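Working notes for the structural subgroup meeting. M.R. asked for a predicted model of this chain before we commit to crystallization trials. I am recording the input and output together here so anyone reviewing the notebook later can reproduce the run.

Input as submitted:
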Amino acid sequence: MSLLRGSVRTQIAVLTVMLAIIVTTIGAITEPMMRGRFDKGLEIGRVIERIDKVARDFEMASDTVQEDEVLTRARSTGITVERADTGQMEGGHVTRAELPSAIRRLLDPNVFWEPNDFIQSLDAGNLVVTMSDNRGLVFHLPPFTLTKWILPAVLGTLALILVPTAILALISARLIGRPIVKFAAAAERIATDEALDEPFKAEGASELRSLAGSLNVMRDRVRSLMDARTTMLTSISHDLRTPLTRLRMRAERSEPPELRQKMLKDIEILGAMIDESLAFLDGTLEPTKKVELSSLLQTVTSDFVDVGVQVKFKGPRRLIYDCKPRAISRVVSNLIDNASRHADHIAVLLMQGPDGAVIITVADDGPGINDELKAQVVEPFFKVDQSRSPASGAGFGLGLAIAHGIITKGHGGTFELRDREPNGLMIVMRLPTRA
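Returned structure, recorded in token form:
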């Protein structure tokens, strides 16, 4: 537990020591099995020992029956040997005393040996050992190719490197990587306004715990600023509505009808400006609920149809989804309201992708928006036509900004403006799959 809460430097130092210990342990265990087992010099020594034993037993045999028994035992151990009449054979012969050096010379020619006539004349694959009275044996030596020793050495070295590295990687991923992944997931939830009131958990290395503490302090300050801003705006809204109400009452008692209508129109614009600005700056978070999204969007479109807006809804009869229902209603309402100022027909489409993501599309047959302006229209108070005033029904430039923030920050989705064929604008909102 102390290692889990230690600094990253301490963890790396401990893991390095562990790596050295693991490498040393695995090397000590595998050395006899991998390297020692396939060591060329050791294997040649074993061959010499077996051949010398066969030659000794054959020389000590008293008759041909015992000699046959010796040869049978030798073949059962993998040694290929035959009788030979050395008196009638040409080529180099060796005695039992010369047997070890001759085998080493034949099996390992890279080793330097003093020149010797009878050794130089030996057949590379066969070794003739001379016994008494022209009796002898012909040993067929096994091939000792270079690859037979390189491959085990390579495999042993790879095992010595890869196994400890894999063990260390698994330990590092759990010891260092897991707290970082959990920390990043918590930061992502904060970024999408999912858990602004949930503090970062102080766990893992000391650096991560220190960072979590600093972020918690920053989160508290941001939250305090948001609360103070909301309180201030609410107070300003309350204070402004009182004189606006008095102005409305006085305007209604004005005698000239034209003047009265102009004054009431300006007062209405001021009230709408206050309401929309408060809606954009409101820091209150709506909890996520499981809602029937098709019914929710049908209700929104029906309200606009009742006031004469040509809007149609198309989607599944039933679609359950976890979201902020009031926020989603507000998004679709803002988009329909914006589209109704420039288009005659509006369509709201709802569908669910194969991965469970929900796609809401609001399309119209209006003039559309240039590609250069699509990235700017989601910014607060931006208007495509700056010359148009709120009195002309152009709005305050907050509708798309509010919708964009609710989808991207409030739900972690995407908000994309596309051209509609043959004309018009499509706003495609993709809400991610909910667990």
